[in-house]
Write a structure and sequence with these properties.
CATH architecture: Alpha-Beta Barrel
Number of strands: 9
Strand content: 35-45%
Helix content: 10-25%
Shape: globular
Number of helices: 2
Distance between the termini: 43 Å
Structural class: alpha+beta
CATH superfamily: Regulatory factor, effector binding domain
Radius of gyration: 16 Å
Order of helices and strands: EEHEEEEHEEE
């Protein structure tokens, strides 16, 4: 279930992430331990560097012709020095559509569909290469109560005026 779609201005944020690739046609349930392990890796790196995570746990997803690249980690206040496994990432500034998804990850496609529908009704073009999610719930929360905020960058489509 999603709790409304809204247009928000993203001011840009720093994150510390570890990045890996998924093949075309990837389904979230196929991620196995990769995503939890990525969070543990980044948390250990931040702890060793004495840098606190200051915001949400995040997953930044970039579509590419051969599948998808996932950058998993945490929001931080400063650019984090990388170590070959963990790297800094800047979430770009700009207009995004945002929706709160409540429920299991397997139902996230419903929230993405709501964002697409909203964009179509409001003359917005969604970025086809980038979107990100903020994970607000602890991994052990009951799936029906899991909260994920989905962000999808967008631009306004110029309207055509008949002459």
């Amino acid at each position: 279930m999603n709790r409304g779609v809204e247009i928000v201005h993203e001011y840009g944020r720093h994150a510390a992430v570890t990045t890996f690739d998924f093949r075309p046609g990837f389904r979230p349930e196929e991620s196995g331990d990769r995503i939890p392990e990525a969070f543990r890796t980044v948390a250990a790196h931040l702890g060793a560097a004495g840098i606190p995570a200051t915001g949400a746990a995040i997953g930044v997803y970039r579509m590419r012709p051969g599948g998808m690249t996932a950058s998993i980690g945490f929001e931080v206040d400063v650019e984090v020095p990388g170590d070959g496994t963990v790297a800094p990432l800047t979430i770009p500034a700009g207009e995004t559509l945002r929706a709160l998804h409540i429920g299991p990850y397997e139902r996230l496609p419903e929230t993405y569909a709501a964002l697409q529908s909203y964009a179509g009704r409001h003359g917005l073009r969604l970025d086809q290469q980038l979107m990100w999610e903020e994970y607000r719930s602890h991994p052990e929360v009951e799936p029906a109560l899991t909260e994920t905020v989905v962000h999808w960058p967008c631009t306004r489509v110029p309207s055509r005026v008949a002459r």
